[in-house]
Amino acid sequence: MRLITSIFTKVAEKMGATVFIEPEYQLIGHIKFKNGKVTIFDHNKLDINGAGAASLAKDKGFSNYFLKQLGYHVSIGNTFFNDQICANISNPRNIHDGWNYAQKLGLPVIVKPLNLSQGCLVSKIYEESEYYHLAEKILAIQPGFIVERFYSGNDFRILVLEQEIIAAYQRIPLSVMGDGKSTIIELLNKKQENFLKNTKKATINFQDFRILQNLTRQNLSFDSIPDQDVIVYLLDNANLSTGGEAIDLTDKIHPDFQELAINITKDMGLRLAGVDILTTDITQPLLDYTLLEINSSPGLTYYASLGETQIQKVEYLYTKILQTLEKS
After folding, report:
1. Nearest one of 105, 121, 92 to 236, comparing CA atoms
2. What is the pLDDT of residues 304-317, one digit of tens each?
3. Engineering a disulfide at 81: which of 110, 122, 144, 156 sits with its beta carbon 3.0 to 4.6 angstroms away?
4. Per-residue pLDDT for 201 more than 70?
5. If 0-12 CB within 10 Å is exposed, 13-18 middle and 19+ buried, where does residue 300 land?
6. Lowest mean pLDDT: which of 81-85, 107-111, 194-198, 240-244?
7. Domain ranges of the chain
8. CA dist 65 to 70, 73, 96, 200, 319, Å?
9. Up-side HSE of residue 317: CA atoms within 13 Å toward CB?
10. What percent of the chain lies above the pLDDT cut of 70?
């Protein structure tokens, strides 16, 4: 059984609930509580957030607008659309407008889909050919994308439930560390093997064009042999689902960042959220930050795969969620 599904099942059964899991993919479950109430989960999607708030959080363009109006430091950016959308809106911004905007912001910029998750197709763009290649890929499956200013800093996720910090961790983009003997492809294969041993899903896509672009920018290839202890970063986004790694800071997060994440979640009408922040260090007092996005259905499979302590935190989170749903 999948890790998160097994955690759901364990927690629900401890509460005396009856659980049915769709057997083929083991992602969707039906939970019936002792009091007769029913809730459905679809992997990491739960009934804890209202439909409107969850839908708003999913659209990165709209949610950024409201977060900015509420006074939060969001990334500077704008949305751009395919020809069909542009033909039906009063202020059309097409793919070419997006490139003009990127140049005004100053390269490199971040380009990402409006409402895909897990870091899918998020990339740092340095030149025109990269921009059009990525924008066309996104528009082939999405109606629009966002062009954002690139900000330096470390990437952190803070998980909030009902004004409580459940977990906080730094997310590090997919990378390999050289040993002076192995090629980059050998180091990547070894990393993927370790993911599998630690119950983390095989997430490294060796054909990802973004990895090839990053290698080319560094004058490297899959056959290059990095020197001892040299770190080679292969993706710009730090999502755990694309091979990133996490450093758990739950017990060290500063109260300033706790308050910030709780307020963001509350102001967006959410009860459960993963708040993604770019800053220097969330264990120190808040000086500056950039709010990257807010996720109303934060995936915890990769966080739980870090170890027993993290599994216990996820179990605690899902226990509180199910207790809330049972009472509501």
Report:
1. 121
2. 888 899 999 999 99
3. 144
4. no
5. buried
6. 194-198
7. 44-74+152-173+238-323, 76-150, 175-235
8. 9, 11, 22, 35, 33
9. 31
10. 98
Residue 231 φ/ψ, nearest 5 degrees: -95, 130
Cβ(247)–Cβ(306) below 8 Å: no
Residue 146, SS3 per DSSP = strand
Mean pLDDT of 89-95: 94
CATH topology of domain 44-74+152-173+238-323: D-amino Acid Aminotransferase; Chain A, domain 1 (3.30.470)
The CA distances from residue 314 to 242, 292, 299, in Å, are: 20, 23, 10
| Right CATH for 76-150 from 3.30.9.10, 3.40.50.300, 3.30.1490.20, 3.20.80.10 | 3.30.1490.20
Q: What CA–CA distance (Å, rounded) separates 187 from 173?
A: 15
Q: Can you tell me the distance from the alpha carbon of 42 to that of 268, in angstroms, rounded to the nearest whole number?
A: 22
Name the residue with higher pLDDT: 2 or 39.
Answer: 39
> Per-residue pLDDT averaged across 317-323, rounded?
94
Q: 307 φ, ψ to 5°?
A: 160, 180
